[in-house]
Amino acid sequence: MRYVRIHKEGRLILITLTLVIFFLNLYICTHFTFGIVPIINIIVSALLLSFFAYFFRNPPRKVYIDDPSLVVAPADGTIVVVEPTDELEYFGDKRIQVSIFMSVFNVHANWYPVKGTVLKSTHHSGRHMAAFLPKSSTENERSTVIIESEGKTQILVRQIAGALARRIVTYAHAGKKCHLNEHLGFIKFGSRVDLYFPLDTEIFVTVGESTTGNETIIARLNED
């Protein structure tokens, strides 16, 4: 029998929401035995619970890759940027930027895109403008994770909060050995994930293409 798995970041929210809805329904059913009010309340309650359960869903995904130079999409969403960009926060030079925009209807768990070692993980406070805007990469609240692959190539993964996203959760920390099929973090309510690669990286995705986190191959690192 299949069932919906809920991500750990959403369990407390769903429990709290369920309790609030339960007592609200109890009150309304006590004071409005008949009429349209109880019906509307039941419909709204069901929609709210369904949406939050859907948003915090945690589908089991496993990818098996023999080539360690391949990079897997860290998030569900749509490719909104593929271009050379000056990355000034960590590398201080030009890199290929690949950005994935996540709507509220995408799975919001984030996965490690390669197997390797986390060199650095930093959180930055900031604004909450729409995540699809270019300035969101440097001005919004964000977390920056630097990963060194097994082939000694460094890539940057940046989780970016959006207009609705108010909390970024990052499990990465310096010195951690990271693997595919492992969650890097979670972003709540609409967001974006940026990746920065060396210029000689082979990119397999284009703007407008959809990605599936921990499944879609988005790039190959030049690790010869």
UniProtKB/TrEMBL annotation:
Q: Which GO terms describe its biological process?
A: phosphatidylethanolamine biosynthetic process
> What InterPro entries does the annotation carry?
PS_Dcarbxylase (IPR003817), PSD-A (IPR033175)
Q: Where is this site: Cleavage (non-hydrolytic)?
A: G190, S191
Query: Which cofactors, by name?
Result: pyruvate
| Residues at the active site | S191 (schiff-base intermediate with substrate)
Transmembrane stretches, by residue range? 12-28, 34-56
The modified positions for Pyruvic acid (Ser) read S191
Domain of life from the UniProt record:
Bacteria
Q: How is this protein positioned relative to the membrane?
A: Peripheral membrane protein
Name listed for the protein in its UniProt record:
Phosphatidylserine decarboxylase proenzyme
- The species is Paludibacter propionicigenes (strain DSM 17365 / JCM 13257 / WB4)
What compartments host this protein?
Answer: Cell membrane
Binding note for cofactor: Binds 1 pyruvoyl group covalently per subunit.
Modifications after synthesis and translation: Is synthesized initially as an inactive proenzyme. Formation of the active enzyme involves a self-maturation process in which the active site pyruvoyl group is generated from an internal serine residue via an autocatalytic post-translational modification. Two non-identical subunits are generated from the proenzyme in this reaction, and the pyruvate is formed at the N-terminus of the alpha chain, which is derived from the carboxyl end of the proenzyme.
Q: What does this protein do?
A: Catalyzes the formation of phosphatidylethanolamine (PtdEtn) from phosphatidylserine (PtdSer).
Cellular component terms, GO, for this chain's entry? plasma membrane
* Entry similarity comment: Belongs to the phosphatidylserine decarboxylase family. PSD-A subfamily.
How does this polypeptide assemble, per the annotation? Heterodimer of a large membrane-associated beta subunit and a small pyruvoyl-containing alpha subunit.
User: Which HAMAP family does the entry mention?
Assistant: PS_decarb_PSD_A
